[in-house]
């Protein structure tokens, strides 16, 4: 099927944009090639959600400037709430502008790189080129990955060298407050052999929006490295979002995801981890609240390639109002991945007659000597749980509240930054009210 | 002194009548035991007092100090002073025992007058120590993965923290080993006194070795058929229920099936 692609930018625009940012030639060329492909590639096809009528290609501006700041007190209250003044390593992006960067001295001495993507492609061109849409996400997977590559207009690069253990979490905040902004944001995080790092990001929009969100994030976890990745997305209703977070784990590497996906607009979210190396593992935890009239599609996939690799998926979602969502949980064990394990649990809690939520568990197994399992359920709040809590004097409304918070706790409890954890709890509170 | 009065209570579940006219009066500072064979409606009585959604009261009344309990929602009953230690407590993932208990206590207090966290923790620690519960249990999710005995202890912990006027204990002794039974009994005995009344439902006289009841009632076929002092429990232990059946001319054929 062909989808008419009306693009707001031309090849000339893309070249000018790249040159204006003094990007290395490889990136300018990559953008140009990508743009050419947008027209001919297939559209992304999220399972069981028809996105034909979604607008991914029209947006007001390619770049909207934000304001660089020198002190956190200049930030809007919504952003201040999630950053701690004691946070050692912090990156803040305002609209499409890198606004603030602080990196702990200790990390600099150890060779850890934390910098906005524009700076990274200039100062660490080879390193970025090696990993940028080469290993995890490819440019020509479909229209939206190509569009992303052509138009990338912000993002962050994190590199943790071999054997370096980053003790304090690295925090990134991407916030928008201009309705014309679009986020073609790219996060590239590479943990080299036996490195260890925890990274937590927020996408926050303040006020109305009418742009596009097309985010690609690539997490490369090399041999023996450990990455903990936390994210809370709270983008406004006006954004149509395509958010692709993908991980690659090498031998004995480990990647833990904790994703709080709380956008108010139509969203496609893909979270795929390829367990390439023997003995590698991933744990992908996602919580979602759907409300209003939004339509969303969530895919969490862990693919076992390595022997004795272990993939865990947990998705807990709350659906209310007239929101619709599909939750695809995919465990795939490739041929040769002996002793691999793939487990998944998807639970959807329905709070309204008009909401729709479908858990769609899929296990694809091409190897005999493996273990796998899945559990999926869609249902209402258990009346006996409500009765039990009420029998202790707790009102019905509070009983439901407690049960819902508990249900979404698996991700909340995994977020290592206090402010971000509190923010997610508040978002949950606000959304289920 | 508070009084809980149950008058001619008829209760059905899915249109099947289980309770067929129960009469019972409880005062604070009294401990009552209800005994009886399986399937005679003991647990139904407990559930009806608390307001379990599946049980329908078709006639009769329950009043607490003259207030109509049957008109109250479950949470209102609890705040009015009723407590039910459940036979099968629900598990609630993601909600810690401590957070749950704090919510339950604050539900009884005005907004802005919530219990201070320090005071709450001190009290919780004290009660948990008394019930020989490891400290980490306050941070575990409510009843999730608890053993049968841990759940029962946790019910008694809630009882001691919430301090109701009347507690109904639905087979609090079932599935407990002797050590756990002693601890649970210790908790109930600690509550005993002015301002606290208790209705213990049990199959076994064993529990009554540790908690001496002031009154013992026997339930059969949906009614209280005999009441007496603690000596009645001893006679039941020694002789079973047949003598009562004979005395009252009860036949076994219509024993009802009881649900949790």
Q: Report the sheet-strand fraction of chain A.
A: 35-45%
Query: How many domains make up the 3D coordinates of chain A?
Result: 2
CATH C-level class of chain B: Alpha Beta
* Overall 3D shape of chain A: globular
Main β-sheet of chain A, in a few words?
10 strands, mixed
Return the average pLDDT of chain B rounded to an integer. Answer: 94
User: Helical percent range of chain B?
Assistant: 25-40%
What is the gyration radius of chain A calculated from CA atoms? 21 Å
Low-pLDDT residue spans of chain A: none
Largest interface: A-B, 24 and 29 residues
**Low-confidence segments of chain B, ≥5 residues, pLDDT <50?**
none
Q: Indicate the CATH architecture of chain B.
A: 3-Layer(aba) Sandwich
Tally of strands of chain B: 12
Structural class of chain A: alpha/beta
**What Rg of chain B do the Cα atoms give?**
18 Å
Global mean pLDDT of chain A: 96
Query: Largest beta sheet of chain A: what is the strand line-up?
Result: 2-1-5-7-9-11-13-15-17-19
Q: Quick one: how many beta strands of chain A? A: 19
Topology order of chain A in helix (H) and strand (E) letters: HHHEEHEHHHEEEEEEEEEEEEEEEEHHH
Whole-number tally of structural domains of chain B: 1
Main sheet of chain B, how many strands, which sense, barrel?
A: 6 strands, mixed
């Amino acid at each position: 099927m062909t989808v008419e692609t009306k693009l707001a930018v031309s090849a000339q625009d893309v070249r000018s944009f790249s040159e204006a940012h003094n990007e290395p030639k490889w990136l300018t060329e990559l953008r140009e090639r990508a743009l050419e492909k947008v027209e001919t590639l297939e559209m992304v096809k999220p399972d069981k959600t028809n996105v034909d009528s979604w607008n991914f290609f029209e947006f007001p501006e390619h770049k909207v400037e934000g304001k660089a700041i020198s002190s956190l007190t200049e930030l809007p209250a919504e952003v201040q709430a999630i950053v701690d003044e004691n946070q050692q390593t912090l990156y803040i992006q305002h609209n499409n502008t890198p606004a603030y960067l602080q990196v702990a001295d200790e990390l600099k001495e150890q060779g850890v790189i934390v910098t906005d993507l524009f700076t990274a492609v200039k100062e660490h061109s080879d390193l970025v080129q090696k990993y940028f849409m080469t290993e995890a996400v490819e440019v020509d997977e479909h229209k939206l990955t190509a569009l992303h590559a052509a138009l990338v207009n912000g993002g962050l690069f994190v590199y943790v060298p071999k054997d370096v253990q980053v003790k304090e979490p690295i925090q990134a905040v991407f916030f928008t407050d201009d309705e014309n902004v679009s986020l073609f944001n790219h996060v590239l995080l590479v943990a080299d052999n036996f490195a260890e790092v925890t990274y937590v990001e927020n996408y926050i929009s303040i006020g109305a929006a009418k742009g596009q969100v097309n985010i690609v994030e690539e997490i490369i976890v090399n041999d023996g490295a450990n990455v903990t990745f936390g994210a809370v997305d709270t983008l406004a209703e006006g954004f149509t979002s395509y958010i692709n977070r993908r991980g690659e784990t090498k031998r004995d590497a480990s990647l833990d995801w904790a994703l709080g996906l709380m956008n108010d607009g139509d969203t496609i979210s893909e979270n795929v981890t390829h367990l390439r190396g023997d003995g590698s593992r991933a744990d992908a935890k996602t919580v979602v609240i759907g409300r209003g009239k939004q339509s969303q599609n969530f895919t969490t996939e862990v693919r076992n390639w390595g022997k004795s690799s272990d993939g865990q998926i947990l998705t807990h979602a709350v659906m209310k109002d007239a929101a619709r969502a599909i939750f695809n949980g995919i465990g795939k064990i490739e041929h040769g991945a002996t002793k691999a394990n793939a487990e998944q649990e998807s639970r959807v809690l329905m709070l309204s007659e008009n909401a729709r939520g479908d858990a769609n568990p899929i296990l694809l197994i091409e190897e005999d000597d493996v273990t796998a399992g899945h559990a999926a359920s869609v249902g209402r709040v258990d009346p006996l749980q409500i009765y039990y809590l009420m029998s202790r004097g707790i009102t019905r409304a509070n009983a439901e509240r407690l049960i819902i918070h508990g249900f979404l706790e698996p991700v909340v409890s995994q977020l290592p930054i206090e402010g971000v954890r509190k923010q997610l709890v508040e978002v949950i509170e606000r959304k289920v009210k | 002194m508070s009084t809980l009065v149950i008058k001619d209570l008829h209760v059905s579940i899915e249109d099947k009548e289980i309770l067929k006219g129960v009469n019972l009066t409880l005062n604070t500072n009294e401990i009552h035991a209800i005994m009886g064979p399986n399937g005679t409606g003991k647990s139904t009585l407990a559930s009806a007092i608390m307001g379990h959604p599946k049980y329908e009261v078709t006639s009769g009344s329950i009043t607490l100090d003259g207030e109509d309990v049957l008109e109250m929602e479950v949470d209102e009953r609890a705040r009015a002073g009723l407590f039910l230690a459940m036979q099968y407590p629900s598990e609630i993932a993601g909600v810690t025992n401590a957070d749950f208990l704090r919510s339950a206590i604050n539900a009884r207090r005005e907004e802005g007058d919530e219990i201070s966290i320090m005071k709450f923790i001190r009290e919780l620690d004290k009660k948990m120590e008394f019930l020989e519960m490891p400290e980490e249990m306050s941070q575990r999710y409510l009843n999730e993965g608890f053993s049968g005995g841990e759940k029962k202890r946790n019910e008694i912990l809630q009882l001691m923290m919430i301090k109701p006027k009347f507690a109904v204990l639905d087979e609090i002794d079932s599935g407990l080993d002797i050590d756990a039974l002693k601890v649970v009994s210790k908790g109930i005995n600690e509550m005993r006194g002015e301002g606290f009344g208790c209705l213990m439902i049990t199959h076994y006289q064993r529990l009554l070795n540790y908690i001496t009841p002031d009154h013992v009632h026997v339930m059969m076929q949906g009614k209280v058929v005999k009441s007496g002092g603690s000596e009645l429990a001893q006679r039941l232990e020694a002789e079973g229920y047949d003598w009562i059946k004979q005395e009252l001319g009860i036949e076994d054929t219509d024993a009802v099936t009881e649900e949790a």
